[in-house]
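Try this one yourself first.
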């Protein structure tokens, strides 16, 4: 169950990171509220996950999910570059997340 909470926390991290762009420096009320809700949800879920998972593993996976998701959506939503090297390095983060899950007995 903790791994599912961690996954959900990572998805909310993607949401608040993308929300930062849409909030335009917290000048737009709707995106700002959505960003704030996503931050709180992400932190609460991460806190619940670390009740059963080691903090180092949970934090690395949480930030990894956020980094991969945000970088991927940056390409799709904000026309950020998707060079082969960038995609390869994002892939390495995915390998790291998967490796931590496997060695942690998840």
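Now uncover the answer:
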């Amino acid at each position: 169950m903790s791994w599912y909470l961690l996954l959900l926390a990572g998805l909310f991290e993607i949401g608040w990171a993308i929300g930062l762009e849409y909030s335009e420096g917290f000048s737009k009320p709707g995106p700002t509220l959505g960003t704030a809700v996503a931050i709180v949800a992400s932190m609460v879920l991460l806190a619940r996950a670390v009740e059963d998972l080691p903090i180092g593993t949970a934090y690395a996976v949480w930030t990894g999910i956020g980094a991969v998701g945000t970088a991927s959506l940056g390409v799709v939503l904000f026309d950020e570059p998707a060079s082969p090297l960038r995609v390869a390095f994002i892939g390495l983060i995915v390998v790291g997340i998967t490796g931590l899950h496997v060695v942690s007995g998840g």
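Discussion: The chain has one domain: 2-103. The chain is about 80% helix and 0% strand.
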